[in-house]
Amino acid sequence: MSTQKKTWHIAGMHCPRCETDLLRAVKDLDGLSLSRADYRAGTLTAQWDDKRLPEEKLAECIAQAGYELKRENSSALRRILTLLCLILALLPSACSLPSPLWRGCSALFQQPAQE
């Protein structure tokens, strides 16, 4: 992937000083440029080259400054998969077409056995 504009959610920013501290922490990172922080939205936006700066290294740098880079939420993914399965389940009846696709959806949401 080449350089792209990306916005990350950052936990722990509460004031303009937090924006300044965060920007100071990431300003010299190779692979990140044109950084902007917004404490009200809780975001960091920048031009990012993921080949030069892995997201994990960025997260570590942000953590050292006292903030947390929020990762994609697995519960959000679960909601998307649930919606997709619901659509696949309703589609055959709406279109009068047989579809075995939705049958596999229940396996996605089975909880692992507690040991």
Quick summary of this structure?
The chain is an alpha+beta fold and 115 residues long. It contains four helices and four strands, in the order βαββαβαα.
List the defining traits of the structure above.
41% helix, 115 residues, Alpha-Beta Plaits, 2 domains, single chain, alpha+beta, four-stranded antiparallel β-sheet
Structure explained in plain terms:
The chain is an alpha+beta fold and 115 residues long. The protein has 2 domains: 4-70, Alpha-Beta Plaits; 74-108, no CATH class. It is 41% helix and 21% strand. It has 4 helices and 4 strands; from the N terminus they run βαββαβαα. It has a 4-stranded antiparallel β-sheet with strand order 2-3-1-4. A hairpin with a 4-residue loop joins β2 and β3 (43-48). The longest helix is centred in the C-terminal third of the chain and has 22 residues, at 74-95. The radius of gyration is 20 Å and the shape is elongated. The mean pLDDT is 81.
